[in-house]
Design brief:
By secondary structure, the chain is an alpha+beta fold. Helices cover about 40% and strands about 15% of the residues. Belongs to the PI3/PI4-kinase family.
Length: about 1050
């Protein structure tokens, strides 16, 4: 090797060198990037800076998350070196000529296998995420992978008991006060339970104090076993108590009566049955985490900040709050417009700026122009809004619609054009929304093409713009209308960014109303009249639109509200002028000090109306301590609330994933809530990315979920074949033959039920399976319980019906039941299990020993057209199964309570299409409703007339049972029934805000009967939240009397239903 004289060599790394150096970085996408960096920067810091700089270059979307790459250089030994340890500093590495090459990490075979398993499970290839070439997607995947890997590693280090809590989380009520329906079942503070032993026929009965813990009970069990069976040497630590028939364990130092299983059994007058099992037989294995130590070290250090030191020093960023210009963008052109090109079509584009569904300023529109025969139109027109950039909130969205001008509204969803002298109509043809800022807080600049969505047929709003719609562009880019727009660049050299939270807080401190703040703190007692006035305003009606004067009054007293009425935060947020950055800074500052809200109020802040990221983050902080039981109860809404998020990553996503990765039961339902909507184009990327993260964080659960997926796929293909066989007996034979085939036996053995994974199905009982009669030919499937002591497991598999609305209604009934029980009212509700697992595919829990009213009338009334009018049939049927006076009285009590509960629940929720085939009664007397295809007052019509004309179902045969067969109208039993209805209604009214907010979280999420704010008006009307409690009670009594007086109309409706059904058979 020839020695090069030192005078010819530039020493980049000498002590006298400058503190910074310009690196030459060759990216894996072929782009060359010069980067100024500190000599003392770590490799990790340089990578962060480099990725930030790369976002300004072409082909940035082709880059994955930074952890997928390593730096490579020629070191001082003239060797190629991969810089695996990213804690090293640049001055120590000394890359030759200050050149760094970025290369992908070497392939990992185990990683490829895992990726293949995830692809199969979530129904979307992970390569599709790569092919999006989207930097936000790549950022999200990197951040969530780091989270998932960390949680999976932590789980491996947990104790046996902690792993049990994860795999089989016990359902526990943490309240120190027992619900009255439970405490009323205790005799001298005691209750009875049965205990069985694993693999034996031995069973003991115990009378235990309700304060007894599982450990104390186990001591008693082993003592009794030692005396009775002469066993020795058994220790309490070697056994655990399991619920009979389920993979649910009673562990922890909690009183037995605090376990939900015990409470439910006592409420149903069923003796709780437990099984003692060896801890060795309980599977708490957790999956092995892939050892990507280098990558993990890389991601551990990441703060995923978009404001890195080097770039800050270079001063390339400017706060958007410094831009005093009005917001402007250009509408360039549109192509592939789906319109009738055989006639003259004039189209225009309307645009609006929105925040949380509310307009920030007046919308703007282009001039109308003719469309070419190719479905194209060009404008190149700037639209300027009456809103300065400095006042655009962080979560603002630009909403766009393309519309055509028509002379006639016939056959289209058109609106009359107000400003026109002629009779012209506007027909919306497509819409699309996009955020004003990108996921890195940067104001968008430059040209972009947005792919538009068509309007759904069931859309009820009269507005042209669709601000509650997704901000995701239509992924069907080849066939959807493409709109090209260009965002204005407000500074030639600087990137405009929304100020950080720290900067906002500094601004609020300097510009906030300090006098107002000090005044509120100094004299909290002086504003009692003002606070009472505010309370009256906001408690009048949650949907009440406040006047400008009321809003200003509340805003002026914001600090007093924070101190004295913190639960009124949602109303205060409605008073914020989100198009004024001074007020935005003020509320941001206040939220840092705002007292924690109860979970019901925190949930309210996650609906569509509260778009601000600081508000939503505050709501998530308030939910951090929510119990697993309560989280499971509200999980459906929280998943739907993700659709209102503007960006892939948010605090709600991380919260849900963390809780799911700490509790496999929550993980199970989160998985299926996400997986069931993977076919929905607007959420398939968001939900797919969350599913990928969950799978990476829970590899042991993946195997169980894949088993369930295989089981469901077999049932789906079988049901499609069964549907082709019209003959009932042939269909049943085909079903049973298919289930005996090896591939079905393998897929449907030893699988936890997707309805409730605590029930494990051992094998199918072919002889008990059948095809049901309804239109979509559901399958009635019966499994042998994996627990030898457990009863068979019955499920209904549905293919062809959308079960999402049923899930929502049943969940709301479950929540109502909880609210009633918390106030001592047990109405014997039966919100059976129901889960949607795919597009129009799902499972329903079978309620055994129950019949429809129609079948009871058929059995007792000879099923004629007049059977619906025969009031004695239902009571006679109950007498058949409750032969003693005691059991009959108990059955009538069950019927009375449950009838009251469902009368009120169906009235409040506006459950429609009620007939004798979707109301059922158990042999024990418990009444319940099924099939919730129509809610919120969307009543069916025939020949233009409403088929249902009563507020709720209260027929003569129902009253006959409640009155125990008495004919007198003013029977004491019926008066008690009416009091129960009134009490139940008033309890729901007191929680009206919660009920409304839970439905508001579901608006515009895909349910046809919950598409706009107008659908909430039904709840508002039934709960009469604008009235006093006494006036509301009077109103309800009038509805009750109406239902009773018009019960003949219900009977007539049922008679026609029975007759029509009889004619079809």
């Amino acid at each position: 090797m020839v020695h090069i004289p030192s005078s010819y060599v530039h020493d980049f790394w000498s002590c006298s060198a400058e503190p910074s150096i310009e690196l030459s970085c060759l990216m894996p996408n072929g782009v060359f990037i010069p980067l100024e960096a500190s000599r003392n920067a770590t490799i990790h810091e340089i990578k962060e800076d480099l990725w930030e700089e790369a976002s300004k270059y072409p082909l940035h979307g082709t880059l994955h998350e930074p952890s997928s790459y390593v730096f490579c250089c020629i070191n001082c030994m003239a060797e190629t070196e991969e810089l695996i340890d990213e804690h090293r500093r640049l001055c120590d590495v000394k890359p030759f000529a200050a050149v760094l090459k970025i290369i992908e990490r070497k392939d990992d075979k185990a990683e490829k296998i895992l990726n293949g398993q995830i692809t199969r499970l979530i129904g979307k290839g992970l390569h599709e995420f790569d092919s999006l070439k989207n930097s936000e997607v790549n950022y999200f995947r990197g951040k969530m992978k780091a989270l998932a890997d960390e949680m999976a590693r932590n789980r491996q280090n947990k104790s046996w008991k902690e792993r049990l809590y994860y795999r089989y989380p016990p359902r526990i009520s943490h309240s120190s006060i027992l619900p009255p329906p439970v405490s009323s079942k205790l005799i001298d503070g005691k209750f009875v339970l049965d205990v069985k032993f694993e693999n034996t026929e031995t069973k003991f009965m115990f009378h235990v104090q309700h304060t007894t813990t599982p450990k104390q009970l186990m001591v008693s069990i082993l003592n009794k076993k030692a005396i009775t069976l002469n066993t020795k040497g058994e220790h309490v630590s070697d056994f655990v108590l399991k619920v009979c028939g389920q993979e649910e364990y009673l562990v922890g130092d909690y009183p037995l009566v605090n376990f939900t299983y015990i409470q439910e059994a006592l409420c149903r007058d069923v003796t709780p049955t437990l099984v003692t099992v060896s801890v060795k037989s309980v599977d708490v294995h957790v999956g092995k985490v892939l050892d990507n130590s280098e990558s993990n070290e890389d991601t551990k250090q990441k703060h995923f900040s978009f404001s890195t030191l080097t770039l800050r020093k270079k001063g390339k960023y400017m706060s958007s709050w410094m831009i005093d210009e009005n917001f402007t963008f250009r509408v360039s052109a549109i192509c592939r417009l789906n319109c009738d090109t055989n006639r003259m079509v004039e189209v225009g584009v309307q645009a609006g700026l929105f925040h949380g569904g509310k307009s920030l300023c007046e919308s703007q529109k282009t001039i109308e122009k003719m469309v070419t025969k190719d479905g194209e139109c060009e404008w190149e027109e700037d639209l300027t809004f009456d809103l300065k950039v400095c006042n655009i909130p962080r979560m603002a969205r630009l909403c766009l619609v393309v519309y055509e001008i028509l002379k006639s509204a016939k056959g289209v969803r058109a609106r009359r054009l107000k400003d026109s002298k002629q009779e012209l109509y506007v027909n919306p043809m497509g819409w699309v929304n996009t955020t004003v800022y990108d996921f890195k807080n940067q104001l968008k600049t430059g040209a972009m093409t947005l792919y538009m969505w068509t309007f759904a047929e069931e859309t009820q709003t009269d507005d042209l713009l669709h601000p509650l719609g997704t901000v995701v562009s239509n992924p069907n880019v080849e066939h959807s209308t493409a709109l090209t727009i260009t965002f204005h660049k407000y500074h030639a050299e600087h990137t405009i960014v929304y100020p950080s939270t720290e900067k906002i807080l500094e601004f609020a401190e300097l510009n906030g109303d300090r006098d107002l703040r000090d005044e509120a703190g100094a004299r909290p007692q002086t504003s009692k009249s003002g606070l009472e006035h505010i309370r009256l305003i906001v408690e009048r009606d949650p949907l009440h639109e406040m006047h400008e004067q009321e809003r200003k009054k509340i805003w002026s007293m914001r600090y007093e509200v924070m101190v004295n009425l913190p639960t009124l935060l949602p109303k205060l947020l409605d008073c914020v002028e989100w198009n004024d950055h001074v007020e935005v800074s003020e509320i941001t500052s206040m939220l840092r000090r705002w007292p924690k809200l109860p979970k019901e109020k925190a949930l309210e802040l996650l609906d569509y109306a509260y778009a601000d990221n600081t508000v939503r983050s505050f709501a998530v902080r308030c939910l951090m301590d929510i119990s697993d039981e309560d989280l499971s109860l509200y999980l459906l809404q929280l998943v739907q609330a993700l659709k209102h998020e503007s960006y892939l990553y948010c605090d709600l996503v991380e919260f849900l994933l963390k809780r799911a990765l700490n509790n496999q039961m929550i993980g199970h339902y989160l998985f299926w809530h996400l997986r069931s909507e993977m076919q929905v184009a607007s959420v398939s990327v968001r939900f797919g990315l969350m599913l990928e993260a969950y799978c990476r964080g829970s590899p042991e659960h993946m195997r169980v979920l894949q088993k369930q997926m295989d089981f469901l796929e077999k049932l789906k293909s079988t049901s499609e074949s069964v549907r082709l066989r019209k003959d009932k007996e042939k269909a049943k034979n085909y079903l049973q033959e298919t289930l005996t085939e090896t591939h079905c036996i393998e897929a449907m053995s030893s699988v936890p039920s997707p309805l409730d994974p605590s029930y494990k199905c051992r094998r199918v009982r072919m002889d008990k399976c059948r095809v049901m009669d309804s239109k979509m030919r559901p399958l009635w499937i019966v499994f042998e319980n994996d627990d030898a002591y457990g009863d068979d497991i019955y499920i209904i598999f549905k293919n062809g019906d959308d079960l999402r609305q049923d899930m929502l209604t049943l969940q709301m009934i479950r929540i109502m039941d909880r609210l009633w029980k918390n106030e001592g009212l047990d109405l014997r509700m039966n919100p059976y299990g129901c889960i949607s697992t795919d597009n129009r595919v799902g499972l329903i829990e079978v309620v055994l020993n129950a019949e429809t009213i129609a079948n009871i009338q058929k059995e007792k009334g000879m099923f004629s057209a007049t059977s619906a009018f025969r009031k004695g049939s239902l009571l006679a049927w109950l007498k058949d199964y409750n032969t003693s006076e005691t059991s009959l009285n108990k059955a009538i009590e069950e019927f009375t309570y449950s009838c009251a509960g469902y009368c009120v629940a169906t009235y409040v929720l506006g459950v429609a299409d009620r007939h004798s085939d979707n109301i059922m009664v158990k042999r024990t007397g418990q009444l319940f409703h099924i099939d919730f295809g129509h809610i919120l007052g969307h009543f069916k019509e025939k020949f233009g007339f409403r088929r249902e004309r009563v507020p709720f179902v209260l027929t003569h045969d129902f009253v006959h049972v409640i009155n125990k067969g008495q004919t007198k109208k003013e029977a004491l039993e019926f008066q008690i029934f009416q009091k129960q209805c009134e009490q139940a209604f008033l309890i729901l009214r007191r929680h009206g805000c919660l009920i409304l907010s839970l439905f508001a979280m579901m608006i515009s999420t895909g349910l046809p009967e919950l598409s706009s704010e107008k659908d909430l008006n039904y709840l508002r009307d039934t709960l009469v939240l604008d009235l006093s409690e006494q006036d509301a009670l009077t109103h309800f009594r009038s509805k009750f009397d109406e239902a009773l007086c018009n019960s003949w109309k219900t009977s007539l409706n049922w008679a026609s239903h029975n007759l029509a059904k009889n004619n079809k058979q």
